[in-house]
């Protein structure tokens, strides 16, 4: 059974999707590769599991209080996609890796394009930190939530300050 709810974040509304009571999706409003709304299931109570747990971890992350997420995840994807997403979770907070570095870490240094495609299909942005992947020369490359958000997330993590604080434009109220 699928359910969803929407929470506010400093980077816009986030739709949380749960499958069988486990988080299986986190999507920004205008995210590329966002599934159709009708596939998210019934509207769930934001105070129910896992939504309340995820919202609290997101609040703590955006406040600069936590750097890693511990909420249980249910990732739907091919075995290769799941291996890429697992490798994304190994990128330390505030650091970046190139697509080629991820491919090499997976044992196939020639698979950077495939890594990029899997990265783009990541159903749990922010929690599975696909924003931490950059081009080989360090340049920003594709991000389902848009390059501006990618830059904001990277700046936030590198600065170590809570998101949505003074000086950050275009942020919404935090939860």
Q: Helices and strands, in N-to-C order?
A: EEEEHHEHHEH
Number of helices: 5
> What is the number of strand segments?
6
Strand content: 5-15%
The level of helicity is 25-40%
Cα distance spanning the termini: 25 Å
Low-confidence stretches: 165-175
The Cα radius of gyration reads: 15 Å
Mean pLDDT: 89
Decide which structural class fits the backbone. Answer: alpha/beta
The largest sheet, given as strand count, sense and whether it forms a barrel, is:
4 strands, mixed
With strands numbered from the N-terminus, the spatial order across the biggest sheet is 3-2-1-4
Morphology: globular
Quick gist of this model?
By secondary structure, the chain is an alpha/beta fold. It has helices spanning 51-62, 79-88, 99-105, 112-120, 147-159; strands at 2-7, 14-19, 22-28, 42-43, 97-98, 133-134.
Would you give an account of this structure?
The chain is α/β, with parallel strands linked by helices and 175 residues long. 29% of the residues lie in helices and 14% in strands. It has 5 helices and 6 strands, in the order E-E-E-E-H-H-E-H-H-E-H. The chain has helices spanning 51-62, 79-88, 99-105, 112-120, 147-159; strands spanning 2-7, 14-19, 22-28, 42-43, 97-98, 133-134. The strands form 2 sheets. Strands 3-2-1-4 form a 4-stranded mixed β-sheet, with helices on one face. A two-stranded parallel sheet has the order 5-6. The longest helix is centred in the C-terminal third of the chain and has 13 residues, at 147-159.
